[in-house]
Amino acid sequence: MLVALLDGRALPASELAAIARVKPPTASAHLAQLVAGGLVTDRRIGRHRYFALAGPEVAGAVEALQLIAPRRAVTSYSQSATARRLAEARSCYDHLAGRIALDLADALVAEGAISPLDAGEPGRLHATDGPLGVRLRLGEVGDVGTTGVRSRRPEVRGCLDWTERRPHIAGRLGSHLLAVLLADGWVARVPGDRSLRVTAAGREAFAALG
Amino acid sequence: MLVALLDGRALPASELAAIARVKPPTASAHLAQLVAGGLVTDRRIGRHRYFALAGPEVAGAVEALQLIAPRRAVTSYSQSATARRLAEARSCYDHLAGRIALDLADALVAEGAISPLDAGEPGRLHATDGPLGVRLRLGEVGDVGTTGVRSRRPEVRGCLDWTERRPHIAGRLGSHLLAVLLADGWVARVPGDRSLRVTAAGREAFAALG
DNA sequence: CGCACGATTCGCTGCCGGGCGAAGTGTCGT
DNA sequence: ACGACACTTCGCCCGGCAGCGAATCGTGCG
Asked: What is the spatial distance between Cα A159 and Cα A10, in angstroms, rounded to a whole number?
């Protein structure tokens, strides 16, 4: 777990459990000890709990131990092919995550379509008439579903991206964006995996929009 | 046990058992594991068996762990007479350690000769023209050996002093300082021991320099 | 040669701590 | 209001390891 956290990212408990190949209760107990011992810090966001190394001294100790530890098959998460795909683009619940999601969020903030994002906090959808707003049909975000029932889900919400430690777009807008990107064939689901593939058409379209 | 070996000395099994406050069979089993794991090397001399750290990586790992470990009362070792001598002045690999090393480091920092030390981190050698810098010939530190080969060893490095838990001077400067102090007769080696004796001349010289 | 001493091996005990399934808690979304 | 989900707590089992006493091995010294 500590090795997985070496690059400074914050990872949720479930992810650390999977990396360590143990069940959630075991991971929870172990993480509790790491926190009690001051090796990692935790940050609760919604129903997730993100863990990160407590400081550079801890990272130094882990690295020093790696130097004298017998080499193990580093099937470590950070270098496998699927890990790279996940870091690039993936779905997070019903919205987009990964590098591409952050780029998209930055672009929308720059266009003035949304307020700057804060992890876990609700945001506001402002102008929907910029180039991106028109192309991505942001105007439709207001009316959710056909029931006419006003959802309590905020129209925009920041959701901490665990690969980059910055918030990407969740909420109704996040859901809408993923649906549009899938419908228009810019990204495609990869079976058996949460990762998403950016299609050739998508790559072209993103480039055209800057 | 590893902490006791941090200064590079080789200690017999019985000594390590006493330091760890365990009986000989326990120490023997533990040391066997340390040897098997490649953390320490052993050397049989007569009916004794001396153990030492396997290398600087191991020392680095132990030091890194000390930085994040809660402080413990180091009771056992700190009371014997030889322990007091070791705490005062000793060699650590090829450089100076102990109280005197820390005083020297503080004085050099105060004079602006070196940047404040950080355990395990490389530092910089700045002015060499202060009273201490001139007296200790810090100007010679730059040219290492006669080969002209640029050593990758940093000119200054912080090395955690296990008696005081503060960094003293290692690196090329540390090596240089010990060589100068020995050459000028300020300190002298004590046979059969890593401890150093501050000579009368040395005491006088240190006092004169503040 | 025999004793003293350092170190090791053997057998045993106590216990800590990792690991899991099942059930509970809080949050999110419909 | 309700179900889904992330995480935690509880209770339990089990393996392994630290630690020791007694006996053994090997070396050095008288």
From this structure: 13
User: What six digits make up the tokens of A194?
Assistant: 């949460």
Residue B8 and residue A202: Cα distance in Å, rounded?
A: 61
Q: What is the pLDDT of residue B66?
A: 83
Instruction: Choose among B61, B68, B120: nearest Cβ to A68.
Output: B61
Give the residue with greater pLDDT, A52 vs B209. A52
Distance separating alpha carbons of residues A64 and A58, to the nearest angstrom: 10
DSSP class of residue A114 equals B
Residues B153-176: pLDDT tens digits? 677 877 766 555 567 888 788 888
Separation between Cα atoms, residue B38 and residue A37, nearest integer Å: 27
Indicate which of A2, A57, A62 best probes the interface with B, i.e. most B CBs within 10 Å of its own CB: A57
Arithmetic mean of pLDDT, B188-192: 66
Estimate in Å the CA B31 to C1' D25 gap, whole number: 18
Is the CB of B14 less than 7 A from some atom of nucleic acid strand D?
A: no
pLDDT value of residue B25: 92
Kindly list the structural domains of chain B, giving each domain's residue range(s) and its CATH number in brackets, ordered by start.
11-79 (1.10.10.10), 85-208 (no CATH)
Within 7 Å of a protein beta carbon, the nucleotides of strand D are 5-11, 18-22, 26-28
pLDDT at residue A110 is higher than 80: yes
Measured between beta carbons, the chain A residues lying within 8 angstroms of B63 are 64
